[in-house]
User: Fold this.
Amino acid sequence: MSSATSWPAGLRGACRWCPEPVAAPPVFRAEALTKTYRTGEVEVQALRAVDFEATAGEFVVILGPSGSGKSTFLNIIGGLDTPSSGRACFMDQEITKLDDRGLTRYRRDHVGFVFQFYNLMPSLTARENVRLVTEIARRPMKAEEALEMVGLAQRIDHFPAQLSGGEQQRVAIARAIAKNPEVLLCDEPMGALDPATGVKVLEALMRVNEVTGATTLVITHNAAIQDLAHRVVRFGNGAILGVETNARRKAPSEVSW
Amino acid sequence: MAAGVATLVLGVGAVSSLERTRDAFYEANRFADIFANATRAPRSLLERIEDIPGVLDAEGRILRIAILDMPGMAEPGSLLLVSTPSDDGLNRLHLRLGRMPDPNRLNEVVVSQGFAEAHGLVPGDKVRTLMDGRTREITVTGVAISPEFIYALGPGDMMPDPRRFGIAWIPGEGLAAVRDLEGAFDNLIVKLATGASEARVIAEVDALLEPYGGTGATGRKEQISHAFLDAELQQLRGMARVLPPIFLLVSALLVNMTLGRLVALEREQIGLLKALGYGPGAIVRHYVGFVLAIAAFGIAAGWAAGAWMGAGLAGMYARFFDFPFLLFSRSPDTYAIAALVTTAAAVLGAVNAVRTVAWLPPAVAMAPPAPVRYRRFWGGAVEQLLQARQTSVMVVRHLLRWPLRTLGGVFGISLAVAALVGSLWSFGSGERMIDLSFFRMDRQDVSVVFSGLAPMAAIHEVRRLPGVLRAEPLRVADARIGSGHVTRRIAILGLPEGSDLSRLLAADERPMEVPEQGLVLSEALADILGVGIGDQVTLELLKGDRRTLSVPVREISLGYLGLSASGRLETVNRMLGEGSVFTGARIALDPSQEDAFYADVRETPGSGFLTIQSLSLRKFRETLAQNQTIMISVLAVLAGIIAFGVVYNFIRISLSEQGRELASLRVLGFTRSEVAAILYGEIAVVTLLAQPLGWLVGTGFAVAVVRGFGSELYRIPLVIGPEVYARASLIVLGAALASALLVRGRIARLDMIEVLKTRE
Assistant:
């Protein structure tokens, strides 16, 4: 999909410790990621030497209880946070070496985010919220197209205050995918929604994953969702406890929680 | 908050302190209430004057102008010799250096402080003067200030010039001998008892002095030093009335906005309190108490700072006016008003913010507020029109969503612009006054005022003086002009036919010929008398046979300095019935022969007093610049603070409201500058909208100042060029920019991760 040429000059440079690409090159590769927070006198180990890889087009569900480190992990590979030690690579670029400007560029060009609380601009309509991103993206799709993909073609001129929670979250997904990102990072996207609405959001996410081929990482503490993933990664106490691959993926309508 | 309170306390405090100080100084030195001149009145008359009901004390003095002969000073200067007041007399001196002259030594004098400073004179120094062609050397024994000469203005001068004009107090006997006035006086000062009628005493004094060449007594209001000081204080008073209230208003607005937001952020705590069983009344009381505590602190700080700075400012002015002491006044009502307005603003802000939450059920209050409802304005026409990026749309919608706050910001900043426009224009207007007065009306290089009347033939002698290119005779006579019961004492100016050095300008600024009959009144005089072209005015001449005439007003002329009435020289002479005479001349001079001219004039008996236009102009500029620099610096700083404060608060509140959205934008890959641009865009729109409004309001201020200032000493032409608006805007934009940069750090530190975890 993307290549090193999309990186701004000065940030370019091969990630030396990444192995030479094999058949399916990893989109993400993390090695020994550690994150330690210090709150007052207390030191909290949020991540303990996490190794991880994801390949292009993969739909990965990350499971784990609160405080297991899954959000910290997502924030670091999403370029929102930096690790205390260890490295993370996106394609052939070591993102843990980037400065604020480089990380901003990385988020802007390659990452789509979806969060539990939507984080929409209340002053912009659905269409305008999506345009916000397409205006600064390198190769965006049309805002209307993105909204149609999440099933909101009829409500594009509504403000967030006029939309239900599920609709707002789907606007957020449309906003995340409209830039045609290589990766889609979702942190508890159904966390604030009722099950029926959650299903709609999940369907939207899976459809986007299939259509655009964006590597999708979905954080949840809801174990029911694991059946939808190609692969399930379990977090606990700041480390990856296990990884499972689903032989058969279920459709969102087949799961219940 | 403190700043708003401080300015009010400062402004009002400084002005009332100066007024109190002046009054105390007048009182301590027994400054007279009524002033009169005569030719030669016997001292025995003083007893009869003191017998007039309402007169506390009367003193006869002798006044004499001597020409200065200072080494190294080519331009002519003069010294007004005044009889020293007796120990219990009026217009007493406040000795700064040395001692009073010995009454038995006729050559000893005390000189005015300004004059002494300008020439570096100390007790023991000698000064050479020329009187009636005779050189006389006098010895300085002391330096003093007097309530009568706080502003010492030489005859014909518009601004004080202590180098060229000074006062020397000399024992009465010494002067009497010189002027042949033994047992007599030519100047009278009278102190009134409290509550006495000034007008009645003036009428009686005039009647008593008339046989002795009295030229009409005047009250303190027309005493030149007092009038100048009063105009100055008036100007300060004007500033103190207009500016601090603006400042207080803006700070109240900020307090209201800031505390309102502060309380709004406490929404969840309010919910918690409700859950714990507090009623809405208790909650409102709690938050009112909270902002009252903040306000109390701000008010106390403002009081202290205002009192301190007010004392400083008053002290500065007291030195400027040379008051020997300073009485600082504290008026409790100023303090109270400042406190009241501030408190009200704070409490209103808090109540307004709490009100929406305090009556909600606890569970609702604890939950975050529903997303703010926005809407498209005029069917999205604005957005269409702007063809804007979504970030610009956000800016526009956020501003329109809170129209009152946006207007408040616009209003606050526009007041800063207005305060500047309302003062900066005075530069241009001063220049215009100069252009009209010095280059288009009175275009002479020098004017001479003789000490008496000269026959018309003497103008030829003036023309024969070295360097004289052109000389025009001039007749000046004191008169009282009136219409209905309004009267004013003025000098009637007689100008020759075809007068070119001294010209009258019509309203359209074109020079006009002096009409053969009747008078031309200056605009200011016509306004005061309420007369127009064709009306009759009564003219009571205070010279010659003191006849009273009815004279038609033929034209109204432009004029900003003083009140003037002019007529054809022959007409004025005819009115006065003194034959073909003149009292002075306006002269165009060859600059290369200036010194020879001055030297010749100095030696000529009866040549009186010289006014040099270039020096007057320089002095005028200096005085103007001095006044304006102080005032405008104060204003620029105030306006800067206002703009800075409004912008800072506006951005901070906006950041506090939109912090979550802005952090979300950072997550989406917007750079710091792009995010900052949203906040800056808002304040830029507010600041830009404020400019034209500020220009408008400022022009209104200027008009009000012109109307309010129209003192009889001078009028101010209203001239506001584009540079005034530009300068005002630049200063305000600079302050806004500085303020915006200060918030940049906060924008850079927006916590992206925090906003993802919380709902709001």
Residues 1-23 of chain A have pLDDT under 50 and may be disordered. The beta strands of chain A are 26-39, 42-55, 59-63, 85-90, 93-94, 111-115, 183-187, 215-220, 231-236, 239-245. Chain A touches chain B through 37 residues (CB under 8 Å).
